[in-house]
Design goal:
Layout lengths: L1 H57 L3 E3 L2 E4 L6 E3 L15 E2 L25 H6 L8 H9 L1 E8 L2 E8 L4 E5 L3 E3 L5 E2 L4 E10 L4 E8 L5 E5 L9 E3 L4 E2 L1
Antiparallel strand pairs: 1-2, 2-3, 3-14, 4-13, 5-6, 6-7, 8-9, 8-13, 10-11, 11-12
Amino acid sequence: IERERVEKENHERARSEELRLKKMIEEERLKKEEEVKRAQLEKERIERELLEQELKEAAASGKINGYYYVDLGLSVKWATCNLGANTPSDAGGYYRFGELTPKTSSSGRYEGCSAYSISNDAAYNNWGGRWRLPTASEAEELANNCTWTWTSINGMNGYQVVGKNGNSIFLPAAGYMYESSYKVTYYGENGFYWTSTVKNAGSTWYRLLFYKDSGVMESCNTWGNPEYGSYAHPIRPVCP
């Protein structure tokens, strides 16, 4: 009888210890889950604050069809962000001329687009309303009537473009993508932005271009002919 009692007590103690260990493990698991949750909430809070700060710094003049713009005192209003971007410092998507979706490694070969129309304007088809690609003359207006200062926002290099009225936009140095490598080139160094103006009867297209080293923003035509369509650039939409 005594042996049975001892065995029973030992079994109960073992069972109690097992339950205690299980409880400790469960408490530790819940603690870690809570820590992960708190860390995620803190990350989201910081991201919201950064977004709010960027939008504040962008000093948006208003919204058109749900997207922020800045009035620089020019003939058109310029968007605060690139097409496909959430903040002014984001690169956004890289688009081949005439395509409505950004280029990816699985995009496949693009045979080119020899003429511009509103139906192949990525800004218009993604944002709607009156949003569209800028023309070459509107890009030159931006170049010639604003002050360009090389700077960095949230670790992203680019130009702060200030109009004569004091309002400004930030154009990130997002570089470009090329079909053969599917990699972004000159990221953080140069900026290459599409315009809608076609030159030489459809053989080349204009793009909005700036270089870090020269400190000069200017318009120039792309490399190659439209049948190749190898280069993909960011887009900064405008609105009349």
